[in-house]
Each structure stands twice: as C-alpha cells, then as structure tokens.
C-alpha cells in the first residue's frame, strides 16, 4: 500500500505541474546523480526557424522550396515542420509527396513525380559531397548553434538549409540549480558536433554527446547508469522513448510526443525544466519522512 508521505508528495507534485506515475519514481528521483537531456524540444523550444538557404546553380529557388515542403509535409520532425512553415510563409503552393519514408535520426526520403529526393543530415545524403557543396558554410552555421540539413536529388546535393532553434528561457537556470545540487548534466543529441558544442557552451551544460542515434542515446544512458547508479533522462521525442525507458527515471516534456509521454515515469506538464529540481527536492523530502 502507498505511504501517506508518498501520496502527499505525488499530490503536491501534481498541483505544481509535475505528474508522477507512481511512488517508486519519487524514491528513484531522490537518488539521482546524473541527468541526460535531449536537445531539440527539451533544452530548446523545438520550434526551429529557417535562417539560410543555399541552392545548387541552375536550380529554381521556388521549385526547390516546393519539393522540400512537399516531402517534409509528411514528417513530424521539428525541422520538417520548420521547412513547411517557411515555404508556407513564402506562399509557394505544394502538395503531398507520392511516397515518403521517415528514417529516424537521419532524415526523410520521398518520391515526387517518380523523382527521388532525400532531406536530412550530411551523412544521410553523402557526407563528402555535402561538405564539398557547403564549402565551409555548415561550419559557420554550426558555430552559431544552427542545424544544417541537405536536400539531394539523383544529381547530388540540391540545397543546404540552415535552421536555428531557440534555447528555452529557463534552460540555463534549470541546469544551474541541478548542478548546484551536485547533479551531473549532459546533453544527448542527434545534431552535429559543432552545433551541440555551441548549445552546450551557451547553456553551461556539464557535457554533451553529439550525433546520437536513438539506440546511441540508450547506450549512453546505460554508461551513465554504470558510472552514477541512478540516472534520469529528459526528452520529448519518439527518438527519446527508448532512452527514457532505460533510465532510472524517464522524464517527458508535457508537450512531447505521445510515445515519450507514455514511456516516461514523470511528466512535466508545462515543459517547465526548473520543475525537475523541484521534483527532486520533493522526492528527497519524502524520503526523509518515510525513513
Ligand atoms: P535531436 O536529438 O536533435 O532531436 P534527431 O535524432 O531527431 O535530433 O535528428 C537528428 C538529425 O537528423 C537532425 O539534426 C537532422 O539533421 C536529421 N533529420 C531527422 N529527421 C529529419 C527531417 N524530417 N528533415 C530533415 N532532417 C532530419
Ligand atoms: Mg527532441
């Protein structure tokens, strides 16, 4: 049966927007020594905006944007939604692709009028060719904390699109409170090394690991478990769900994907990162009463 102290901690959590799915998670949270964070949608708002576009010579800008929006219109990725919003703002009409394949952690493949297109990270469209096409531009973008994606057709790279996601106002403060409590903070992101480095520096994160595929996030959480014993993982995406399930405590952003919300042990109802420190305080207080 559930202890009165546990019940009272769960209900006071709920009142301040922290949903605990059970008493055991409170107990685990009280022992947390390290917290891993996803980047996009967790530390950042997850609503990136297109900032720069470089198009292959000889290609028409409007038709390139039309194709890009068409393909991305069938993906739920925040980057995909940003491309679609950008093209809608330019009032360029587009229709859904004939076929689409979403390759989690890499990008999307689509067919329009029997022509195949790929949109995604450099390694997805061909790293060497992508680097040659960007000719240093993606490095400059990354140093600004921007994410670069590539559009490719059967002839090669067709365009580079840079997007910037804004760091949540409360991220820096939330991380600082946790670090002051002696908790190690680390970001696990699918984004590139340079972009990750820029975001980590801006938010004063303890550490970061870039270019994580969903299964890499799981392995890094396992490493953290070995090193720190009790570890929380905070995320919002489908790609974070396996890592949320692996951590001692999985914490989901309330506006995250359904899979993340279902998998998590704790849900931050308003995406409010400082509530993590509050949840830990609550759990420690409960532990003192129970003991
Ligand atoms: P994060 O951990 O930052 O949320 P993801 O694992 O979702 O990142 O994606 C990793 C990378 O794969 C992105 O930074 C992007 O380069 C590429 N990518 C994934 N899906 C898409 C898409 N629909 N359109 C363009 N690029 C994508
Ligand atoms: Mg995310």
Molecular structure report:
This protein is of the alpha/beta class and 291 residues long. The chain has 2 domains: 4-45 and 167-290, Rossmann fold (3-Layer(aba) Sandwich), CATH 3.40.50.1000; 49-164, Calcium-transporting ATPase, cytoplasmic domain N (3-Layer(aba) Sandwich), CATH 3.40.1110.10. Helices cover 45% and strands 24% of the residues. The protein has helices spanning 4-15, 23-30, 39-43, 61-72, 78-89, 122-125, 127-134, 137-143, 171-180, 193-203, 214-228, 241-246, 258-263, 275-290; strands spanning 18-20, 34-38, 49-55, 99-103, 107-112, 115-120, 147-153, 156-164, 184-188, 207-209, 231-235, 249-253, 266-268. A hairpin with a 3-residue loop joins β4 (99-103) and β5 (107-112). It starts with a helix and ends with a helix. Bound molecules: adenosine-5'-diphosphate and magnesium ion. Magnesium ion (MG) binds next to α3. It comes from Domibacillus aminovorans. It is found in: Cell membrane.
| Helix-and-strand structural type | alpha/beta
Range of helix content: 40-55%
What's the CATH H-level superfamily name of the largest domain? HAD superfamily/HAD-like
* Average pLDDT score: 95
Major β-sheet, in short?
Answer: 7 strands, mixed
In total, how many beta strands?
Answer: 13
CATH class division of the largest domain: Alpha Beta
Stretches with pLDDT under 50, minimum 5 residues: none
Name the helix and strand elements from N-terminus to C-terminus, one letter apiece.
HEHEHEHHEEEHHHEEHEHEHEHEHEH
Roughly what fraction of the amino acids lie in strands?
15-25%
The gross shape turns out to be elongated
- At CATH level 2, the architecture of the largest domain is 3-Layer(aba) Sandwich
Distance between the amino and carboxyl termini: 16 Å
Helix segment tally: 14
């Amino acid at each position: 049966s559930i202890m009165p102290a546990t019940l009272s901690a769960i209900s006071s959590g709920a009142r301040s927007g922290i949903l605990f799915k059970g008493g055991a998670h409170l107990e685990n949270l009280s022992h947390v020594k390290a917290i891993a964070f996803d980047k996009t949608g967790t530390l950042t708002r997850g609503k990136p905006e297109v900032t720069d576009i470089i198009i292959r010579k000889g290609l028409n800008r409007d038709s390139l944007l039309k194709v890009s929006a068409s393909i991305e219109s069938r993906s739920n990725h925040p980057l995909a939604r940003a491309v679609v919003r950008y093209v809608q703002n330019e009032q360029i009409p587009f229709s859904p692709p004939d076929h689409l394949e979403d390759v989690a952690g890499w990008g999307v493949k689509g067919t329009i009028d029997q022509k195949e297109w790929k949109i995604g990270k450099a390694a997805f469209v061909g790293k060497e060719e992508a680097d040659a096409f960007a000719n240093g531009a993606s490095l400059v973008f990354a140093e600004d904390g921007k994410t670069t994606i590539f559009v490719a057709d059967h002839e090669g790279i067709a365009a580079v699109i840079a997007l910037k996601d804004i760091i949540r106002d409360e991220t820096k403060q939330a991380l600082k409170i946790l670090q002051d409590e002696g908790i190690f903070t680390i970001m696990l992101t699918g984004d590139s090394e340079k972009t990750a480095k820029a975001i980590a520096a801006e938010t004063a994160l303890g550490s970061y690991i870039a270019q994580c595929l969903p299964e890499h996030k799981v392995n890094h959480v396992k490493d953290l478990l070995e090193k720190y014993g009790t570890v929380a993982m905070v995320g919002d995406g489908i790609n974070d769900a396996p890592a949320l399930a692996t951590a001692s405590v999985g914490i989901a952003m309330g506006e995250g994907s359904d899979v993340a919300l279902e998998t998590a042990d704790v849900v931050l109802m308003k995406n409010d990162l400082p509530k993590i420190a509050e949840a830990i305080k609550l759990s420690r207080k409960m532990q003192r009463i129970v003991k």
